[in-house]
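Journal club prep — side note

Before the paper discussion, L.F. wants everyone to see what a predicted structure for a comparable chain looks like in token form. Sequence:
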Amino acid sequence: MKKKMLALICGGFIAFSLFAAPGNPVKAAEEEDCTCHNVTPIYGAQKNKIIANLISSQEFKNAKLSIIKDGDNWRGINNTEVLVHNSYGITIVGVPFIDQDGKIMMATFIDGFFMGSAPKYE
């Protein structure tokens, strides 16, 4: 009888502590005031015009030559991505190529200037 009573009291205490504990252990993360993802993809004729201006520029030709000299393969303009940053008004162009390990990389141009390359996350 004492064991049952002790088990009942301990079980009640545990149940009470689960539901009546102060605070909320599950809290949603506060929204960050980040404008880095505030971009709009560009499609159609406007995208084609931006890409045409980029690939005819000397900056692009130098970057492409550097990529090819490193042993990587340029994939052409088929999967090129064009974004406009809504807060800063800059144009971001990502040109895909394949590195020596077979990974898809994106050569990034911001307002026509080559900024480097990074792996493409799909």
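L.F.'s comment for the group: The helical segments are 2-19, 44-55, 58-69. Keep this in mind when we get to the figures.
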